[in-house]
Amino acid sequence: MSTAIEVSNLSFRYAGATQWALRNVTLSIEEGEFAVFTGATGCGKSTLFKCLIGLIPQMYPGEYLGRVVVKGLDPAQTPVSRMAQRVGMVFQNPDNQLFALTVENDVAFALENLGLERAEIERRITKAFRMMGIEDLRKRSPFELSGGQKQRVAIASILALEPEILILDEPTSSLDGATAKKLLEELGEISKREEITVLLSEHRLDLVVREATRLIVIEEGKILSDGDPREVVHHLLEDDYEKVELPKLPRLAWMMGLRRADKIPLTKEEFVETLLEVGK
Length: 280
Ligand SMILES: Nc1ncnc2c1ncn2[C@@H]1O[C@H](COP(=O)(O)OP(=O)(O)OP(=O)(O)O)[C@@H](O)[C@H]1O
Ligand SMILES: [Mg+2]
Fold this sequence. Notes:
It contains ten helices and nine strands. By secondary structure, it is of the alpha/beta class. The strands form two sheets. A six-stranded mixed sheet has the order 5-6-7-3-8-9, sandwiched between helices.
């Protein structure tokens, strides 16, 4: 495996702010990972993502220390449009991302800007819409879609750019639990099948802990915990950490006294297995 993203001692303070939004963040993400970032509101998730695509420091003034390398490029020095060809980001509020008269035109716009041929644009739109299961929305206006549909359109328009890295900032914030879970499972499958590195922020850990290959907890701009989701959840349980929504099954197992780090159950099957072992 090779490294997709390398962040070294990154700190950032927005112009005029007294507090640093990121403090000495060091992090490396391998190709193909499905890395989930979590932490309380305002901890710095969106700020970190903006650093990875170069919006910070290029569009947001402030004090920037440290170094970021994404796919061999330094996002602080690379034109944002060039970064966008390698790294696709879906922002926290998809409303700001959709503006054309039809959904299809919205997606086509970015591809036309890349100078792609009509046939290639058609191929990519068809594929991205199929991946997101929204072929029937192509001719609709983005303004008449539900929150969940808009979210899928926003993701499809980024997938159509065929990024090597996909960054999704709270992609499920406007969705109910069941819809969110389905979308996240699909993203997990897409990541595996298309070999896309995915970075995603989410505070409802129950929804993502099975998909994640990596869990990173941020607190006040610092990395609090980073590693295998099972181990990180174990740390959080040990610390009785209350700033993120811990998944139910591990919490339940913990309350029942089933506390071995390697046995923290993430799925129903694992939960039952842990119970049965205790009963032996
Ligand atoms: N444009 C900005 N100018 C000044 N301060 C900002 C700006 N954007 C964010 N901040 C501050 O930086 C800190 C980190 O914010 P950020 O948006 O990265 O948090 P977050 O983890 O994404 O939160 P949420 O879960 O609510 O989306 C917060 O204290 C926030 O108030
Ligand atoms: Mg945010």
